[in-house]
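Researcher: Here's a chain I'd like modeled. Treat it as a single chain, no partners, no ligands.
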Amino acid sequence: MTTSTDVASTGAPTSSDAAVTQPGGSETANHELISLLHLASPALPIGGFSYSQGLESAVDCGWIHDGESAGTWIRNGLSTVLARCELPFLAQQWQRWDALLQPSAHTDTAPTTALREADAWFLASRESAELRQETEQMGWSLSQLCVSLEWGEPAARAVLASMKPLALPTAFAFAARAHGAGARASCAAYAFNWVENQVAAALKAVPLGQLAGQRVLWGLRGDIARAAEDAMQTPPHAMSTFSPLLAILSARHESQYSRLFRS
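Model: Modeled as a single isolated chain. Structure tokens:
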């Protein structure tokens, strides 16, 4: 099923491919890098380690059985699922958070409305109960972290705290924008974190050895960069969640006999 949203009438963000902070040489670049390393870290307490996004079900069905098949599965998920919907959505939500913080938005409710409508669309695009619960739980956890640590401007943080339920990409876009990271780099960090979580799930569920896992991760660096770049070029009307096999496997997972993961 191909889906679209009309909350943004233009294409991908234009000014969001650079850090939000003012140009300041290597210090500015380092600030963006450190911020995104923090947000993409497995140590970020939002529960990413407990989900496999259908990979465990694929292992149970025999689709994944070694390092090569795990790498193929993860590469396909990155290029045909994440890059076509979740990453473009993240870039567009970054742009909406940025619009919310412009001086003209102080008396304009349109940016807030756009954020809420887009987030509701993304939640509705999740094909199974487990996939929806995953993005809601992780989105809520990241939102709580943002509020507790007082990340970002108070006005935007208040909007974030009021959004319930909340999708993970919306919360990630807020956190990245709050820390001065641009949309393009944020998409790359988000994609790397997704791939790293998939590899970690494969290590446990297949199981794979550490060397095999690192070989998969190393081999996907170029795919991650291309996925982030494609996301910046994808307009809202071109976003798609079409992935029947993933939807079926995800729906089967909730009744799977033995499970290590929550999705």
